[in-house]
Amino acid sequence: MADTALITGASAGLGARFALASAAKGHDVILTARRGDRLTALAKTIGDRFGVNAHVIPADLAAPGGVAGLMADIAARDLAINTLINNAGFGARGDFAAMDGAMQARMIDLNCRALVELCHAVLPGMIQMRSGGILNIASTAAFQPGPWMAVYYASKAFVLSFSEGLHEEVKGRGVRVASLCPGATRTEFADVADMADSRLFQMFAGDPDKVVADGLAALEGNRAVKVSGAMNAMMAGAIRFIPRRLARQMAGAAQKPS
Length: 258
Fold this sequence. Notes:
The protein has helices spanning 13-24, 36-50, 66-76, 101-129, 150-170, 189-192, 199-204, 208-220, 230-238, 244-255, and strands spanning 4-8, 28-32, 54-56, 83-86, 133-137, 176-181, 225-227. It is α/β, with parallel strands linked by helices. It has a 7-stranded parallel beta sheet with strand order 3-2-1-4-5-6-7, sandwiched between helices. Helix 1 runs parallel beside helix 2 (36-50). The radius of gyration is 18 Å and the shape is globular. The mean pLDDT is 92.
């Protein structure tokens, strides 16, 4: 029986690419996101191209009970999860005080709470089997504060810290936990976040397929943190030696809307 990977946010961007890459390795996949039509189209592509099972379960993971509902649907189909790729998330750029508060709360719910709930749902079974892996998608944003994207940067700092802690807890129990930290990447995320015109994106946007390959390799090697891209890794490392005041000023200059 093939291993099964659950990929959240699978309807587009990195999520769709993680699904394709997992299927290419011979894994069955469970695809979840809000947009069921896109998931269905992706599942057909996966089935036709790789001959593996692609299960479609639309879900709004930011909504109350969203994760519980997804896990109930997975259980009802008698599916086991060998790999969890926590990719679902979104960002928004602008003045924190002026942006919609409910939207920013939803960002925290999706980027942080849903990710934690999913890890908590799958880990007991993985620990019992002494097998399995979790890949949490953080960001280079996790390494410094981010004026004009304050909530997004903070949410990714949470993902990175949580993932590192979890990695240490379970590394002796047969379960792999890795955190992937891409920089700006050429996907529709940038359009949704209204950052495609930012200096950061225009200067450093990277290849999404390289990001996916780096993430899967990090999970396979049980690497706690992987920063995708040599320039991103250098900048993430250098931030430790820059005064926090300067770091936040630099990030703000890169993200501030024109």
